[in-house]
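Q: I'm writing up a methods section and want to include an example of the input and output format. Could you take the sequence below and give the corresponding predicted structure tokens, formatted cleanly so I can copy it straight into the document?
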Amino acid sequence: MALWTAQDAAAATGGQAVGDWQANGLSIDTRSLQKGDLFIALKDQRDGHDFVAQALAKGAAAALVTHRPEGVAEDAPLLIVPDVLQALEALARAARARTSAKIIGVTGSVGKTSTKDMLGAMLSGQGKTHIAAASFNNHWGVPLTLARMPQDADFAVIEIGMNHPGEIAPLARLARPHVAIITIVAPAHLEAFASVAEIAHEKAAIFDGLEPGGTAILRGDLETSAILLDAARAKAAKVLTFGEESGDYTLSDLRIGPEASCARLRAPQGERLFKVGSPGRHFAVNALAVLATGDVLGLDPTIAAHDLGRWQPPAGRGTRERIMVDPIEDRFFDLIDDAFNANPASMAASLAVLAAAEPTHGVGSVGKGRRVAILGDMLELGPQETALHQAIAALPALRYIDVIHCVGPRMKALYASLPQSKRGDWVETATELVPKARRLFDAGDILLVKGSKGIKVSLVVDALRKLGQSQPPRMNEAE
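A: Here is the clean output for your methods example:
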């Protein structure tokens, strides 16, 4: 079954279809376009109309445009509309209206994408599940995800993000979730918000889109939980809370290994064991919301817990690997790649993972394996950015970390606050640290690389990987 026919897309958007075409997918980028996609000529950093001819040459079924671009044949398959983004939103509304899928919306300052992916792993074992392949959570990402939703989907997971006030509510109303999850509220995007309380109000706007009879799932152990609860109770038919020690769903007996986190879930239905395929307390806590969603949807809890265990984070989101530098002499180091995103809450969570990890002793030149952090700037924190970077020095996890390298002008505040014994290098840019990659580690060390995407500490990750061959870490630790 085609995702969109020319007739259906024209009816949904009020546009003019040129040709009788059928599209099996949607694309906004000619580099990833698949044959049979409807190419969406959005205007962002570049005008998508400049790439319509290329998209059609690559096999696009048609292009969604405001006009026929120069160099495109008069009989080329098109859908002509007054505004491309508004037409994409119209496709999203039509896709949402024609499906009987259960929709789950996810937002939060930290953990949106990993929670979305955990939900996808759990749900896909019990029905046809639609989920965005990447963090498509903004004003074009949410409608694109919805417009890509197959009509016969059983479940769909929609990630909803924001950078400024007023962004979440319209996206939530577009998605109309049956279940809405808030992972956590923490200092992030403080350039646009005066306080964490304001962020909580914005995150709580996801409940504005809840379907009648819908369920709100939120952290019950935050300073801002009262704000979230008030909003949830006003919009949701059912409210569930989760947290480390308090809530309807709580953790007990958490054990963290190099490749997974295993724990016991305490819930109204009783206790059960579960695991997630990455070390980290924060992953285990967000898994509570995932399993709560399974209960709300009436899924088999044993199958749900089993399928959740198949989830692993994507590259840059906390994946751990072993870099074998010299296989003959068994010289290696372990690398935790968390270079995609950073704010104070996620930084604390990642450093806690590093602190709990056990390096390998007796294989390096100094004998004792070390925990090493390479930390890049946390961006979009507004006037409090200096204090928030300095505050990292007071985190309990730092007691267990041997060396900290800092990248970026904001991280200079942390570097100055560190004890001399823990100071590694400070550099203005990640590029300056790349040539030093070989001396950032000794055999047996565990290295965490963490920072906002814009500071590009991923370049350091790439340089470290090039020093050897990557393989999964061995099971040599537990908490």
